[in-house]
Design goal:
Blueprint lengths: L3 H19 L4 H36 L3 H8 L1 H9 L7 H17 L5 E7 L2 E6 L5 H14 L5 E6 L28
Parallel strand pairs: 2-3
Antiparallel strand pairs: 1-2
Helix pairs in contact: 2-3, 5-6
Length: 185
Amino acid sequence: MLDDAKVREQVQIAESLLDKLENLQDEQAQLIAVNAVQALITLYGQALARIVAHARREQEEGGQSTLLQALAADELVSHLLLLHDLHPVPLQNRVQQALDELEGYLQSRDVTAELLHIRDGVATIRLGSAAGRKQQSAVQSAVMQAAPELLRVQLENGAHNRQPGASSFIPLNTLAPAKESQNNG
């Protein structure tokens, strides 16, 4: 079995070979090669789907699946599961878990991080006002590593949410439903 460094090497080799396939001059050879690769990816995806289904059944019957946890924790398997939309841990949970793992580092620097929402492939995270570039970069990197299917991580600085000395008063008319104007004539 290859270690993670060797797997990354193989990924680079595969990407290089796929680039060469796309640039083949012989269109028929290119079409055959691309179709062969797509067929293999589909087969491997189906095999992964069956593995995950077996692990989920095990989890439902026994309450805990160490196999699902192991699959999610393995870098290569996790990326393949993401590729085939089979990852056993929901996106929001993975993002929150990444933030939880950074909590000690951030707290030691008086920084907080709160996941606000994930919409349209963008995770929005509010950082405390003490967050510097290093902390911002650490949050973005950790979240993208945990959820590479995200398009980006948007950071909001907690200090910008209120102006110094600004009132926290919310006018009542902004909370009440709009009344329809009545025409009596």
